[in-house]
Prior knowledge:
The chain is mainly α. It contains seven helices and no strands. It has helices at about 10-20, 30-40, 45-65, 70-85, 95-115, 125-165, 170-175.
Amino acid sequence: MENNTARPLGAGLTVLGAVARVLPHLPNFTPVGGLSLFAGARMRGWQAYALPLVLMGITDLFVGGYSRATPLVYVSFLIYVWIGSRLRDTENPLKIGAGAIVGSLQFFLLTNLSLLAPGNLYPHTLAGVMQSYAAGIPFYGRTLASDLLYSAALFGLHAWLSRAVARSERVASLQVA
């Protein structure tokens, strides 16, 4: 494993993803899940975990994203980073796609639990949990689609640029021929 922790290409692509969050988009169709997955895979240490927290904290000011669900949303993006850290040594599209699917699924499961908070519409019963998840299904489709799209874009751009421009950021397991 390479000791160099500087990843300007990875950092630059994350900034690009951050800009995409503040552009007009459908509800739950944002780059943050894919970006968090990418950060976990291509950035190192605390920087990977700090990225989605800083990104969300700053961009929520512009898009008005604060709600009762906010703490669970932030935790969910940290889980995406952890999932991404399992993809550090691969450029395999199937593994990256599986990571995006698992990420969007945990986001759906975790953030819909916030709908059971006191004062919300759903009773604190199994039926209430099922109602909460049923109400979230339309949003899940957009989350899954955006995670797959943005993950493909970020990982694909990184793979291409790490071969053409920033060879030092090439995935370690693929550098040995």
